[in-house]
Automatic annotation (TrEMBL):
Subcellular location field: Cell membrane
GO biological process: transmembrane transport
Annotated protein name in UniProt: Sugar ABC transporter permease
Transmembrane residue ranges: 76-98, 107-127, 162-185, 266-288
Lineage: Bacteria, Pseudomonadati, Pseudomonadota, Alphaproteobacteria, Hyphomicrobiales
Length: 300
């Protein structure tokens, strides 16, 4: 018995030794920034002079800040659109690639993955050119179709800026979820589909009755990725509109950036970031609990 305990202890020490670099990195680049942001949120600081203790003053200000709440609402809309136009649409596409057009799946998957492999900054600049109201491809396409009434200054009008950004986000991240779901759909046993075909099931029935339940773990993981990514999205919004016009496409991260590096209110920016982190963690936990309670993944 003592020999087995010593063997287990030696393995535990070895495991801790190998994991310690990862723990150190997490402590330095995750735990410390979070703790520091929480501490800084209690102060009024411009980034240069000595911090002035505010207590809960920054949080009180945040609670009454309409721009922050509108930005948070847009983050939630981005998350909702991601669940539909990224996660669910990606699952539909993955099913088609694996089950309907397997001969062309590799070449089509490559095209879906191109936006994932390109820098988000480059994608944002490309779409700014496409949305240009004077020589952009979007308005040119409407003009070629005789739909001149649909031409817009897509990124410069309050009514269309946010929707235009959501379209770019869906285009950019869709390929990642397609790749993940293709791997999940391919793992479903072929015998299950063959049994369904014997019973006369079509693709619609097989998709909703077999594929979705069988790849539930992938649905849960991808949903969490989509929610977390949507609540902290920044680069595409920053490049496309910088939250404008008149905060029409503002999200929490761009508002944080403006407060910290535009207005030099570092304490208030830390409050926004700390609150964003907490809300993201809570949102991810709620989604995970909901998917687990509804049985997605085949286990409860």
């Amino acid at each position: 018995m003592s020999t087995s305990k010593g063997f287990a202890n030696s393995h535990n020490r070895a495991a801790f030794l190998f994991l310690s670099p990862a723990f150190l990195l997490l402590a330095a680049f995750v735990a410390y920034p979070v703790i520091y942001a929480g501490w800084l949120s209690l102060f009024r600081w411009d980034g240069a002079s000595a911090p002035v203790f505010e207590g809960a003053g920054n949080f009180v200000r945040l609670a009454g800040d309409p721009i922050f709440w509108r930005a948070l609402g847009r983050n939630l809309l981005v998350a909702l659109s991601a669940m539909v136009f990224q996660v669910f649409l990606a699952l539909c596409i993955a099913y088609c690639l694996v089950r309907i057009v397997p001969a062309f799946s590799r070449i089509l998957l490559f095209f879906y993955l191109v936006p994932v492999m390109v820098s988000e900054i480059c994608i944002g600049l490309l779409w700014r050119f496409m949305y240009n109201p004077y020589f952009g491809l979007v308005n040119a396409a409407f003009g070629a179709l005789g739909l001149d009434g649909l031409k817009r200054g897509w990124l410069g009008e309050s009514g269309t800026a946010f929707s235009a950004v959501v379209v770019v986000m869906s285009f950019t991240y869709l390929g990642l979820y397609v790749l993940l779901f293709v791997a999940a759909v391919r793992s479903v046993p072929e015998s299950v589909y063959e049994a369904a075909e014997i019973d006369g099931a079509g693709h619609f029935t097989k998709f909703f009755s077999i594929t979705i339940p069988m790849v539930g773990d992938a649905v849960r993981a991808n949903s969490l990725l989509a929610i977390i990514g949507s609540l902290k999205t920044f680069s595409l919004v920053f490049v496309l509109t910088n939250g404008g016009p008149n905060h029409a496409s503002e999200v929490v991260s761009t508002y944080l950036y403006k407060m910290g590096f535009g207005s030099f209110e570092m304490g208030y920016a830390a409050t926004i970031g700390f609150t964003q982190m907490m809300l993201t963690a809570i949102g991810a936990w709620l989604v995970f609990r909901y998917l687990k309670r509804t049985g997605v993944g085949g286990r409860t």
